[in-house]
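Hi R.,

Quick one: here's the diguanylate cyclase sequence you asked about.
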Amino acid sequence: MNIVAQQSSTVLVVDDTANTLELIKTMLGGEHRVLTASEAGTGMKIALQEEPDLILLDIRMPGVDGYQLCRQLKADPITREIPVVFVTAMDEEREEAKGLELGAIDYITKPLSPPILRARVRNHIDLKRQRDQLRRLSAVDGLTGLANRRAFGEALEKEWRSAVRRNTPISLLMTDVDDFKQFNDAYGHLAGDEALRRVAKALAGAALRPADLVARYGGEEFVILLPDTGANEAALVADRLLLAVRRLAIPHEHSRGWQFISLSVGLASARPARHVGANELLDLSDRMLYQAKNSGRNRVVT
Ligand code: GH3
Ligand code: MG
Ligand code: MG
Ligand code: MG
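And here's the predicted structure, written out as tokens:
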């Protein structure tokens, strides 16, 4: 039995022929949520909004054809990983090769056989789910269970593009544990690991919104990505994070001026534009962190 495919899954069908859309909807409707689009522009829009598990794509359509839409889907980081299956009456070898070379995962020719279409769709959705799960696992930091730096980088790119599109602000909090080398030296590396785990948990638990991401950026550095969040709101979050870590009250007798483990935080906010990269926000938060360190640690600098 196919357990994975039984979770609710969404299939997008893009085809300029209303009959084909109806036909495929009938074939798959019992098993999946089926969305339809009769031209490429709408198809792309739905793909971005709904992030379906699979896209069934006609080739010959007036205006933007299926090949071009496939190229667009593969070029956008939001839709890149969604498997595309061409469903077409064009059964020539070179058409099929072209479709597969564009990154489509499969090529099905009409007339459609309902059981074969259903089985292929199910298999592709299963594989997609497995790939997603592997990606999730490879995105986790082993010590803390937080997102790792790689995952953070991907999320930042994705949120940046989405913020450009929606014209919304985005904020970053770059944090670094104060005098942590001293902590390791005084209490030992294992105690250091345990302290990092507790700090990570405190950060993750500091009542963030579902879209926010807390990641381990490096050794004792954590970064918090706040989509749709301006500077004022981000400053409140930063204060909450500082407080959450202070509340842990992990003794640290050798920290400068503070008897417990504390954080320094660099805050940067931006309203992303197409011509600036996400890295500039990262650089800015890093510079702010540096200032937080230089102005005495255990504080937020904006
Ligand atoms: P500052 O306040 O300027 O940040 O001083 P610091 O001592 O925290 O900065 P520094 O970068 O010199 O030291 C970071 C320390 O964090 C050194 C390293 O041993 C420790 N560290 C990094 N990753 C881990 C880890 O996974 N476990 C433990 N126990 N320690 C770690
Ligand atoms: Mg057509
Ligand atoms: Mg550091
Ligand atoms: Mg440090």
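Confidence is low (pLDDT under 50) at residues 1-5.

Cheers,
M.
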